């Protein structure tokens, strides 16, 4: 019995201490091949024959950052409408015929690009690729489809703006970027969507959807010469486009603000901390993603450990650098009871400060690096993930073989680099935005933070750089 007890004790120790991560291995990645058509369209092919699937993605190098100041959501609406009918096919015909080929065709807009993606079995690529070309080159932008999409988007926005977490994200962009291009909501607001006319959509498409402002990427089971031939066949005669938008400066305009949006009777509060992040091309890219992995990049990261695991104040807390062509935001967020919002905000700010004050121990750093490397490897397993990585590198102007240096870059990051990076990118001048029932937390919040601004939701205007409706007297909200 004594030997059995000893054996059980040893077994318990083994089970309590998980094995360390194995040494990472550099992935064997297919080499991208590229060619530029005479009309300026850049075509990139990444052949990977393990699965008979192809992802084809046409990326317009313009997105929501080009929305006019009062027409937020224009890029998103334009991209979303591409699959809703062309000069020769209705939306129903496109959907039915693409489905018959076992393919999916989708479109949408991000901050820096608009994309049209096709996923299909390699044997059906020639037939399905014609649909991608058709929706890009010949969209009809019918009024009934515009009105239908507008109504859908407005309904979705109304629901989102009643959710503390969604509303906090929208407000955080305005607090951080003000009137700069990244300051508005990518999907617009109910007011801005009402202002968008068909002529605005047509003009946006005519100006930016042009071969010299586009990149076409094939990934998966397709030979480069076959892909280049398809590109030439369907896009070789494509022309048009006016002066292409140059990247506009999006530098944050505000720092160190504490803003409360009073949403009476909200069931919970959303706490968001935001500050300027980095560009994707920043030399500190690897240091940034490792730093964030330690701070808030997963269940075992520090923010979730402090807020959820130790104190049970939220179902989850995390953070991310939103990497874009220009400087995007760093955002940390959690949702909690209204009464505990000040405590969560204080904990989050304390964890940012800790990243600057103390070096990360190797016992913590190793697993966080392993998590990044594992996620990277999984993202390359599908044609869609591979094309996504290649497309983004092409968009921001980085060499396509940058993927081959991801793992070594992560592995090389040191605790000293993290501490130095955090001192300049995770400082005390971060903005705090809280959306919730202010009467339940405002006084304790004012004891923790000075100069708290309160905006009643009835006075909120997401189209305004100040977040306040014009010609409204500032009441200060809850007193």
Characterise this structure:
- The structure is a single chain.
- With 479 residues, this protein is of the alpha+beta class.
- It folds into two domains: 33-235, Metalloenzyme, LuxS/M16 peptidase-like (Cytochrome Bc1 Complex, Chain A, domain 1, 2-Layer Sandwich); 258-459, Metalloenzyme, LuxS/M16 peptidase-like (Cytochrome Bc1 Complex, Chain A, domain 1, 2-Layer Sandwich), CATH 3.30.830.10.
- Helix content is 42%, strand content 16%.
- It has 17 helices and twelve strands.
- The strands form two sheets. The protein has a six-stranded mixed sheet, with helices on both faces. Strands 9-10-8-11-7-12 form a six-stranded mixed sheet, sandwiched between helices.
- A hairpin with a 4-residue loop joins strand 4 (104-109) and strand 5.
- The longest helix has 18 residues, at 143-160.
- The N and C termini lie far apart (69 Å).
- Mean pLDDT is 92; it is low at 473-477.
Alpha-beta content class: alpha+beta
Widest β-sheet, arrangement of strands: 1-2-6-3-5-4
What do we call the CATH homologous superfamily of the largest domain? Metalloenzyme, LuxS/M16 peptidase-like
So what's the overall shape? globular
Largest sheet: 6 strands, mixed
Give the tally of structural domains: 2
Second CATH tier, the architecture of the largest domain: 2-Layer Sandwich
Q: What is the distance, rounded to the nearest whole angstrom, between the alpha carbons of the first and last residues?
A: 69 Å
Q: Find the CATH topology of the largest domain.
A: Cytochrome Bc1 Complex, Chain A, domain 1
Q: How many strand elements? A: 12
Percent range of helical residues: 40-55%
Order of helices and strands: HEEEHHEEHHHHHEHEEHHEEHHHHHEHE
Helix tally equals 17
Mean residue pLDDT: 92
**Rg computed from alpha carbons, rounded to a whole number of angstroms:** 25 Å
């Amino acid at each position: 019995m004594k030997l059995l007890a000893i054996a059980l004790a040893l077994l318990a120790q083994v089970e309590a201490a998980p094995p360390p991560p194995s040494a990472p291995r550099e992935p064997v990645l297919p080499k991208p091949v590229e060619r530029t058509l005479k009309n300026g369209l850049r075509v990139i092919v990444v052949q990977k024959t393990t699965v008979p699937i192809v992802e084809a993605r046409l990326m317009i190098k313009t997105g929501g950052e080009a929305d006019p100041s009062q027409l937020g959501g224009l890029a998103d609406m334009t991209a979303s409408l591409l699959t809703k009918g062309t000069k020769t096919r209705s939306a129903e015909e496109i959907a039915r015929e693409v489905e018959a080929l076992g393919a999916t065709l989708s479109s949408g807009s991000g901050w820096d690009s608009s994309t049209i993606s096709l996923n299909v079995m390699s044997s059906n690529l020639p037939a399905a690729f014609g649909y991608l070309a058709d929706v890009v080159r010949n969209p009809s932008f019918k009024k009934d489809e515009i009105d239908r999409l507008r109504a859908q988007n407005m309904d979705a926005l109304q629901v989102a703006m009643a959710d503390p977490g969604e509303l906090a994200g929208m407000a955080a962009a305005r607090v951080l970027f003000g009137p700069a291009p990244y300051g508005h909501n990518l999907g617009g607001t109910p007011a801005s969507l009402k202002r968008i006319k068909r002529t605005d959509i047509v003009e946006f498409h005519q100006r930016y959807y042009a071969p010299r402002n586009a990149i076409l990427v094939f990934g998966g089971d397709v030979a480069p010469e076959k892909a280049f031939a398809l590109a030439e066949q369907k896009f070789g005669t494509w022309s048009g486009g006016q002066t292409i938008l140059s990247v506009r400066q999006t530098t944050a305009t505000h720092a160190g603000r504490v803003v409360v949006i009073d949403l009476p009777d909200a069931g919970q509060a959303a706490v968001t901390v935001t500050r300027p992040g980095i560009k994707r091309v920043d030399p500190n890219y690897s240091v940034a993603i490792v730093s964030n992995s330690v701070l808030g990049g997963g269940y075992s990261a520090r923010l979730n450990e402090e807020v959820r695991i130790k104190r049970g104040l939220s179902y989850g807390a995390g953070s991310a650098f939103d990497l874009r062509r220009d400087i995007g935001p760093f955002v940390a967020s959690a949702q909690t009871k209204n009464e505990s919002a000040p405590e969560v905000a204080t904990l989050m700010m304390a964890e940012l400060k800790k990243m600057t004050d103390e070096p990360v121990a190797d016992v913590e750093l190793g697993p966080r690096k392993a998590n990044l490397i594992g996620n990277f490897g999984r993202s390359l397993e599908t044609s869609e993930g591979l094309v996504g990585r290649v497309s983004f590198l092409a968009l921001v102007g980085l060499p396509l073989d940058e993927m081959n240096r991801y793992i070594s870059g992560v592995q090389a990051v040191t605790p000293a680099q993290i501490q130095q990076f955090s001192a300049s990118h995770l400082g005390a001048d971060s903005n705090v935005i809280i959306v919730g029932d202010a009467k339940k937390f405002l006084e304790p919040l004012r004891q923790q933070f000075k100069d708290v601004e309160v905006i009643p939701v009835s006075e909120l205007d997401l189209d305004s750089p100040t977040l306040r409706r014009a010609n409204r007297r500032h009441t200060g909200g809850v007193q």
